[in-house]
Design brief:
This protein has 17 helices and five strands. It is an alpha/beta fold. Helix 8 packs across helix 12. The radius of gyration is 22 Å and the shape is globular. Helix content is about 55%, strand content about 5%. It has a five-stranded parallel sheet, sandwiched between helices. The protein folds into two domains: about 15-125, Rossmann fold, CATH 3.40.50.2300; about 200-385, Orthogonal Bundle (Hypothetical protein af1432), CATH 1.10.3210.
Amino acid sequence: MNTQFLNSPTQPDTFLLVDDDDFTRARLEMRFESMGFFDAKDARVLTASNGKEGVEELNENQREICAIILDINMPVMGGLEMLEILAKNEVTDKIPVFILTEEKDYDTIRKAYELGAMDVISKQTKQTVEEEEAYWKLIYRRIKSVLEVFAARNNFEQSVARQTEKLSEQNIQLEKAFKDLEFMYNGMIEALATATEFRSGESGEHVRRIHDITLLLLSETPLGKDYDADTISQIAKAAILHDVGKIAIEDSILNFKGRLSPEQMDIMKMHTVHGERMLKQIPQLANLPFYGYAREIARHHHERWDGKGYPDQLKGDEIPLYAQIVSVADVYDALVSERVYKPAFPHDKAMEMITNGECGSFNPVLLENLKTVSGKIQKLYAHKETEA
């Protein structure tokens, strides 16, 4: 079987639907052609009845494919087996894969995520007309948000390539090119953060406040003594992407109203790993100053001082200081903000809960410095209190 996939030089505009049920394929094909994904007149939907046919379609048409919709249980070759081939050939780095399945086994779903699936969407049956329309609107929103991130990444890569060529031809314009590059990756950061906030039902203020608290703790306390002003600025910028991995968590878990089950929590915790993986899949960012901080913050902002955090159970100073700072900023913002499962706590109550260990174990030195800028942090939220 040929698995030598090509890099696409053109803008892809085709969905590949891989499902063994004829009715499901027909319904999906009809829906995807009517849901507003396509602008080009020659845009289309390709179908395959099993993973083997899906790989063959991909070999022939990868230049045009913008997303793969994949079932799990199929004859000849199942969805996970096809996904393993895609992951091995790094196709999941270039084309988002969505699992659309009736499968409820969390181990299977977790395996799909580990192999690079961007989202797992449950098939719905026995719906009213209104429920079916709401269901398809939800699918449209979830797929569209991921496609926008991949499109932004592809556009970014093309922009970087153009800038690199220009630099090789005209070294005299180096300074201007670097400024243009900074503008582009700032836009990339904003696109990723906005897509994440959209998925989790937040306004975008959350990531800006995490940025501001991180900047405050590093610039106005001894915590930032080992960093110059530019590095502090880059770390604060990286903090914006701390939850970028949540874009890969299904809505039913991400916006669940109530306490998550242990199985759901295991999947939610995977957003840390997803976040680092997503940033790793944008290698053009690797030489930019915020990149290393962003990857470590995305992965480690839920680690705890006593080793009881996740995903790696790092303990004490094993946790990067900037990840610790983003962690406490994230907890504070969650406490003073209203959520579906709780009201907003006042500033003093939030500080008390953090410092007395109700929200997990934090670096004692970090907590002491948090107290010294407590008033300034409270002022960052003055407009929220006014609105309330």
